[in-house]
Design brief:
Blueprint lengths: L1 E4 L7 E3 L4 E3 L9 E4 L22 E5 L6 E3 L12 E2 L6 H12 L12 H5 L2 E30 L2 E25 L6 H7 L8 E2 L9 E3 L5 H22 L6 E30 L2 E8 L5 E6 L5 E5 L5 H8 L1 E7 L1
Parallel strand pairs: 7-12, 8-11
Antiparallel strand pairs: 1-4, 2-3, 5-6, 5-11, 7-10, 8-9, 8-12, 9-16, 12-13, 13-14, 14-15
The structure holds zinc ion (2 copies).
């Protein structure tokens, strides 16, 4: 499918800066109409009839002949229909500014690293994700002690009090993200976190117009164990945070039970900047919602400097979205 302008027939794209659909040819806003491929052949551009070279998992791309942005119907429908998405908040111009502000005064990068021509090659891509939800119950039991010592006259006393520690905690995890793209390195996506999942909306194809996209290429069952692991680690940490103030704790029981689990297929925005230097590729990524940068910059001297933004522990993301209700027994 393609979004065409009702006024001039140009290709209408989603403008993150305007937060609206925008026709770059006649500058109309919200003038789009959806046009589907006439014969359903996703390899043929519905506008110019050119044959589009497609990668196995491409869901949206730019026609190399007419430069229009196309969305491949059958890769955003049926089993590949995303439930949710975060539309791009940063357009290409804003993204260039983010990179320039960050690196302009740095002396390490080759001179053309921030050149207009190079930066224009940046591509906005929607990366496929599975977002997992869990309702969990944790029961924790332990024997805790509190020790008090004091001196009276020439006698010293030690008093040890024993406590039966019981915690019964219900935790709801929402949208634990795991990227579902083979192409996208897992460590990069982990570093791109956090996204603000409060801004997630129901999927609408028009937000894809003007960008690239990939459909999921790893299914939710394949990736479940990664989300499970995050959930278990965070549950244990949350339970531990509820047990404090004792001199010693002897754990008797620590049961974590998943009461209910589910997942949603979603798309998250990433700007990719592939910089080539001395026959080497240096991929650079910017979170399309927050502007957080992750990448490796070449140094002119031939060395490589690893740049990442602050590494946010996974817990931070999850804490933002969880509801915690605890019943405490002492
Ligand atoms: Zn127009
Ligand atoms: Zn075309």
């Amino acid at each position: 499918m393609i979004f065409k302008c009702r006024n001039c027939g140009g290709n209408v794209v989603y403008s993150p800066e305007k937060q609206k659909m925008f026709c770059p040819y006649c500058e109309s806003v919200e003038s789009e109409e959806l046009q589907r491929s006439p014969d359903g052949n996703i390899r043929i551009c519905p506008d110019c009839g050119g044959e589009i070279p497609l990668k196995e998992h491409t869901a949206a791309t730019q026609c190399p002949y007419c430069s229009n942005y196309l969305i491949l119907d059958e890769r955003v429908e049926g089993e590949y229909l995303p439930g949710k998405m975060i539309p791009f908040k940063l357009g290409k111009e804003t993204c260039k500014k983010v990179l320039r502000d960050k690196f302009e005064k740095s002396l390490f990068a080759p001179t053309d690293f921030l050149s207009e021509v190079r930066l224009n090659s940046m591509q906005g891509t929607y990366v496929p994700f599975w977002l997992y939800d869990y309702d969990v119950n944790a029961i924790y039991e332990a024997e805790g002690t509190k020790v008090r010592s004091w001196v009276s006259g020439n006698m010293s006393y030690t008093e040890t009090s024993y406590y039966e520690v019981r915690r019964n905690i219900d935790i709801g995890f929402h949208d634990i993200p795991v990227d579902a793209s083979v192409e996208m390195p897992d460590d990069v996506m982990d570093l791109m976190e956090p996204y603000d999942y409060m801004q997630m909306i129901d999927f609408e194809p028009r937000y894809m117009s003007g960008f690239y996209a990939e459909k999921y290429n790893m299914d939710s069952e394949q990736l479940k164990s990664r989300a499970n692991q995050k959930m278990m680690e965070d549950t244990r940490a949350l339970v531990q945070a509820q047990v404090s103030g004792y001199s010693s704790v002897r754990q008797l029981r620590n049961d974590i039970r998943v009461k209910c689990a589910g997942q949603t297929y979603g798309l998250l925005p990433v700007w990719k900047y592939l910089y080539r230097y001395n026959n080497q590729e240096y991929p650079f990524y910017v979170n399309g919602q927050t502007g957080k940068i992750v990448g490796t910059v070449p140094i002119s001297a031939g060395k490589v400097w690893i740049y990442t933004g602050t590494l946010w522990a996974c817990l931070t993301t999850i804490l933002a979205g969880l509801t915690l209700c605890a019943q405490l027994f002492l």
